[in-house]
Specification:
Number of strands: 17
Oligomer: single chain
Number of helices: 16
Radius of gyration: 24 Å
Shape: elongated
CATH superfamily of the largest domain: Zn peptidases
Largest sheet: 8 strands, mixed
Helix content: 25-40%
Number of domains: 2
Strand order of the largest sheet: 7-8-10-9-13-17-14-15
CATH topology of the largest domain: Aminopeptidase
Strand content: 15-25%
Length: 493
């Protein structure tokens, strides 16, 4: 874990640390500051660069011993400067902090100028990479040696922005929170567990949190959500978070998350293989909690509401059956053809409730909705769909800014024909073995009205990706927190 990051105006060679890191781009010679580091090492750094054939290719490194003030000094290749983007800075920073952990370094000094961290975007990205690269989840290890994590303090020297470092800390901590919440097993991470996390975040300035139980949701007419929840013994929760940091009376932007804390498939029981991974079916809600945590820490001048529907999907004696018909919050009737297509049912009520209650200026939802998106896009991108080109452009821009990839899928009218039911308004499946991700999107569209809206299917990104280096080797990624906060921030610039 990264204990803290501070900015110093001093040069890298004048700050005591277990490890000092500096960067070099291809075809570039040592800078003035690097020559000072080399002098401190008695010329060992330049000699190591020469003898090793160091070519500054991205991710390559050379390390030498320093002195009592700087125990080790490392040069990292940053590759072609023209191709060095913000996500490359994030990736490289993660490599650096992981190397530091291997050497049990407790303190790191970063030569900011050598990595281009005088630019705000690069400074933020690099510091995010330091935090995310150091992440580990070992709460359930009984071996104290395995559980032990050495805290690392980091000093960024030179002309770096303290404001961007502090922002990176808030974003990095919030992604880590999203990872933590998702990584807990389903017997711990229950709907009540998520609600308690929301309450803790809600103690911040400008926040209000309201929790609705099953009876409340039933009374409100959330037949789709309650249909999913009725087979579970664990109490279901609808979690509502209101952040009012903007002008009084301004309509909020809305975030809606799928919080399926365990998905057995219900009566349409899933195969046993990898069913344990269905604890991750609540990663959409983790994204929302992570964003709201960042908002709590950074206090942007805007209004944001978050709504999470949380339950288990279990094959209990009271579970809904294939063939059942439920009535959603907005009055639409839904034929249940497969109880494992439950996420869209949960979201249907959360979306329509949010639209009715808050009249948001824009809305996004986040869900591990379909396995089909993984088949289509792999662990490389989320699938996005929406009803508003302007909001979709904002999402794509923030995707470019953060390196969290998205790929837009179509929602042509022909796809809506696939979800029409013969005996109800709509059904919860599309055409057999066809466009499964899109079917989920057009289903949700039935519950957003004219509100500008984007649906993000994160099933391929919530867990599984191991690259770039800032992604964990296993477990949840915290995907979506960075892209959403960037979008929200851009809305108030």
């Amino acid at each position: 874990m990264v204990k803290g990051i501070k900015v110093s105006s001093k040069s890298a060679d004048s700050v005591k640390a277990d490890l000092c890191v500096t960067g070099m781009f291809e075809g570039k010679s040592m800078s003035k500051d690097q020559k000072s580091l080399d002098s401190l090492c008695g010329g060992a750094l330049s000699l190591a660069v020469e003898l090793s054939g160091f070519d500054a290719k991205f991710g390559k490194s050379v390390q030498v011993f320093g002195n009592s003030s700087l125990k080790r000094v490392s040069v990292y290749g940053a590759g072609d400067k023209a191709e060095f983007k913000t996500d490359n800075a994030r990736d490289l920073a993660a490599m650096i902090v992981k190397d530091a952990q291997k050497h049990e370094a407790k303190s790191i000094t970063v030569d900011a100028g050598s990595f281009g961290l005088n630019r705000d975007a690069f400074c933020q990205a690099f510091c995010e990479g330091l935090i995310l690269g150091a992440y580990s989840f070992n709460e359930y290890k009984s071996d104290k040696k395995e559980k032990k994590v050495t805290p690392i303090t980091i000093t960024v020297t030179g002309n770096a922005s303290a404001v961007m470092v502090n922002k990176a800390l808030a974003i990095g901590d919030s992604v880590s929170l999203a990872r933590d919440v998702s990584n807990h097993p389903a017997n711990i991470a229950t709907p009540t567990f998520l609600a308690n996390h929301a309450k803790r975040i809600g103690k911040a300035k400008n926040f209000k949190v309201k929790i609705l139980d099953y009876k409340d949701c039933k009374k409100l007419g959330m037949g789709a959500f309650c249909g999913v929840a009725q087979g579970a013994k664990e109490p279901a929760k609808a979690i509502i978070m209101e952040y009012m940091g903007g002008k009084k009376g301004d309509k909020p932007f809305a975030l809606v998350g799928k919080g399926l804390t365990f998905d057995s498939g219900g009566i349409s029981l899933k195969p046993g293989a990898k069913m344990d991974e269905m604890k991750f079916d609540m990663c959409g809600s983790s994204t929302v909690l992570g964003v709201m945590n960042a908002i709590a820490e950074l206090q942007p001048k805007m209004n944001v509401v978050a709504v999470i529907g949380s339950t288990e999907n279990m094959p209990g004696s009271n579970a809904q059956r294939p063939g059942d018909i439920v009535t959603a919050y907005n009055g639409k009737t839904i034929e249940i053809l497969n109880t494992d297509a439950e996420g869209r049912l949960l979201l249907a009520d959360m979306l329509s409730y949010t639209v009715d209650k808050y009249k948001p200026v824009g809305m996004m939802d986040f869900a591990t909705l379909t396995g089909a998106v993984l088949i289509a896009l792999g662990h490389k991108s989320s699938g996005v769909m929406g009803n508003n080109d302007d909001l979709m452009k904002e999402v794509k821009k923030s995707s470019d800014n953060t390196g969290e990839r998205v790929w837009e899928l179509p929602m042509w009218k022909e796809y809506s024909e696939d979800i029409k039911s013969k005996i109800a308004d709509i059904k919860n499946l599309g055409a057999p073995m066809q466009a499964g991700t899109i079917a989920g999107g057009v289903f949700l569209q039935e519950f957003v009205g004219d509100t500008p809206w984007v649906h993000m299917d994160i099933a391929g990104m919530a867990w599984g990706p191991t690259k770039p280096s800032y992604q964990p080797k296993n477990g949840a990624t915290g995907y979506g927190v960075r892209i959403v906060y960037d979008l929200l921030e851009n809305r108030i610039k």
